[in-house]
What does this fold into?
Amino acid sequence: RKEVEQDPGPFNVPEGATVAFNCTYSNSASQSFFWYRQDCRKEPKLLMSVYSSGNEDGRFTAQLNRASQYISLLIRDSKLSDSATYLCVVNGGSGYSTLTFGKGTMLLVSP
Amino acid sequence: GAVVSQHPSRVICKSGTSVKIECRSLDFQATTMFWYRQFPKQSLMLMATSNEGSKATYEQGVEKDKFLINHASLTLSTLTVTSAHPEDSSFYICSAKRQGASYEQYFGPGTRLTVT
It folds into this structure.
């Protein structure tokens, strides 16, 4: 089983739509969870951390279910500029600080 | 704050030559830096963890004699790909963890290496 698993997509949605991405992770000892955004041929950029109680940042809402080892990201009112690959990231690997990345889910928002 | 730079951004080299990539934290001290590699349509794969003043810790399957890492100061880590081959062509990205911080890493813009 892969450490962090995501549906690669692409998710094609019109502007204004609501879209949700899911992610599962295998390491039950993981403590921290993040969503990163990566544009084509660029480095990943932190979108938001994911907390057990769920958290919201503007149009973006992240949820964590530790029992199911499942993380979600909801994007409301999609914009063209939201088109990117969204990476689910958990801490894990060989050390305390290391991060394990999913392959990412591609989102394409069209006019 | 928390800006990380990488140099060069793009490099093309011939098979058998060595390439050095620099990663710098510009406005903070980074006791730990990480080197990743990303092949097309694949996830970022951690290659090694670099701690200032000590030897790097390499992930399983990464040859330490081929990928030389030096972290001589709190703001600079270098990755040298020795005797590069076409299969080493990839996107190499570094990240840095702020001194005292827990998990958050700040990424450099990446270096695209093409070995011909």
Q: What stands out?
A: Residues 56 and 89 of chain A are 17 Å apart (CA to CA). Chain A touches chain B at residues 4, 8, 31-32, 34, 41-46, 49, 87, 91, 93-95, 97-104 (CB under 8 Å). The two ends of chain A are 37 Å apart (CA to CA). The first strand of chain A starts at residue 4 and ends at 6.
